Amino acid sequence: MADKILKELKIKVWRQKNAKSKGKFETYIINDISTGSSFLEMMDILNNDLIEKGIDPIAFDHDCREGICGTCSLYINGRPHGPDTEVTTCQLHMRKFKDGETIIIEPWRARAFPVIKDLVVDRTAFDKILQAGGFVSVNTGGVPDANAIPVSRDDAEEAMDAAACIGCGACVAACKNSSAMLFVSAKVSHLANLPQGKVEAKSRALNMVSKMDELGFGGCTNTRACEVECPKSISIMNIARLNREYLKSRLSR
Amino acid sequence: MSKFLTASIGRKFVMSLSGLFLMVFIAVHLGLNLLLIFDDSGSLFNEGAHFMATNPLIKIMEPILGLGFMIHIIWSFFLEYQNWKARPVKYAKKNMSGASSWASRNMLILGALVLVFLVIHIIDFFWVIKFSPEEIEHLAKGDYDLVAGLFKESIFACILYIIGGVLLGLHLSHGFWSSFQTLGVNNKFWLKRWQVIGQIYAVVVAVGFSIIPLYFMLGLYK
């Protein structure tokens, strides 16, 4: 069966020339969009239209378009990654929208994620947090036997669930305080749960949290919006673990 | 310690601990206040109030309680300002209702309204009892007549106190489990437990404090 066609959509989108310019909303009309196309495909079609009209196409981030790289962003109709749960924007489909609807598209808004152009924001703040402590020290050489270090199944599962974080920044975008706690807690948790992560355990939480604060992210007020909007459903129980790890590190020195 | 208080998580610990401390106070306060509706002669409540006013432990706790309130209130405005600064350009359209509860997003507003109520409440009772005891002496039966008298006299006061109780309940419906989460005393098993206990506590506080002015408003006393 052929997909339904959305005859007309109004796209109200944030246009900003560069990091320094002020930026404002522009509204474009787009016709005949299949409900089977993804949101980013709709953006591609819109950009083709704009190019034909001699208008600068809308800049937005995207890469794998398979929901695993964390590159696509977009705050659509008041929600990160738009009106669907557990998906990234590339996995969001146009069937989630109605014919004639006005779709409002904004970039992630946070002091730590400055807009570079249109809908593209600079997320290097996340890389800086990872560099501050999101690593383990291992000896180079031959690969050790997989079963040489015993890991309980529960710990392995929790570590893997936390490691599912793709670093897209939806948690920051969704949080009323622009807090990066879910991201940081996922990174701390997936290492804290495994024996390999114990070496740096004492400094990791301290260093990553102090980097997070330094970069201008807000604090956590436990509204839980982040875990709802997270495309990988990272649990806020990781934040409880981060709080524990942080307290332990702080008390141990 | 200074490093602890400049870190976002450390700052949250302060909110959490002061909040938990205030929650213990609220439980004691509610327990004592309920004596108002269990004895219409007022002697039970007066005895309770007298015990609280003369007990040395309570005397020590009083200034600490004041400090707890100050820390929780002043710190909250400071933290909210910090969080507000983290998003210099706001969203044009937000749709947050599906992802988080209204109370959790509006803890500052709820807290500020509770603060307004608290100031009125202190002027109404605490101030009179503490600093103008001659006014109490005019009344035949002491503290009971001061409290019950206000509620019997003024429907406006009754409604204000009911609203105060409900606002406090809403504030606690998020605040209770949230304080344990912040302290890290939480995991996938305890989340539901803390939330259920928190909801029960919030309802008990809201209903418990509202039922007292309601009792006098509806003229259920003899």
Keywords:
heterodimer; A: 253 residues; alpha+beta; Ubiquitin-like (UB roll); Fumarate Reductase Iron-sulfur Protein, Chain B, domain 2; 2 domains; five-stranded mixed β-sheet; two-stranded antiparallel ribbon; 8 helices; 7 strands; 34% helix; 14% strand; B: 222 residues; mainly alpha; 11 helices; globular
The first-level CATH class of the largest domain in chain A is given as Mainly Alpha
- Calculate the terminal CA-CA distance of chain A, rounded to whole Å: 65 Å
- Give the helix proportion of chain A (percent range): 25-40%
Q: What is the SS-derived class of chain A?
A: alpha+beta
- CATH-scheme architecture of the largest domain in chain A: Orthogonal Bundle
Could you explain the architecture of this structure?
Chain A is α+β, with helices and mostly antiparallel strands and 253 residues long. Chain A folds into two domains: 5-106, Ubiquitin-like (UB roll), CATH 3.10.20.30; 123-137 and 147-251, Alpha-helical ferredoxin (Fumarate Reductase Iron-sulfur Protein, Chain B, domain 2), CATH 1.10.1060.10. Helices cover 34% and strands 14% of the residues of chain A. Chain A has helices spanning 39-52, 124-133, 153-163, 170-174, 181-192, 201-214, 225-229, 237-251; strands spanning 5-15, 24-34, 75-76, 79-80, 102-106, 115-117, 120-121. Chain A has a five-stranded mixed sheet with strand order 2-1-5-3-4. Chain A has a two-stranded antiparallel ribbon with strand order 6-7. The longest helix of chain A is centred in the last third of the chain and has 15 residues, at 237-251. The radius of gyration of chain A is 21 Å and the shape is elongated. Chain B has helices at residues 2-6, 8-33, 35-38, 43-54, 56-85, 102-105, 107-131, 133-138, 143-153, 155-182, 190-217. In chain B, α2 crosses α10. In chain B, 81% of the residues lie in helices and 0% in strands. Chain B is globular. Chain B has one domain (2-77, 102-217). Chain B starts with a helix and ends in a 5-residue tail after the last helix. Chain B is an all-alpha fold and 222 residues long. The model of chain B has no long low-confidence stretch (mean pLDDT 93). Chain B has eleven helices and no strands.
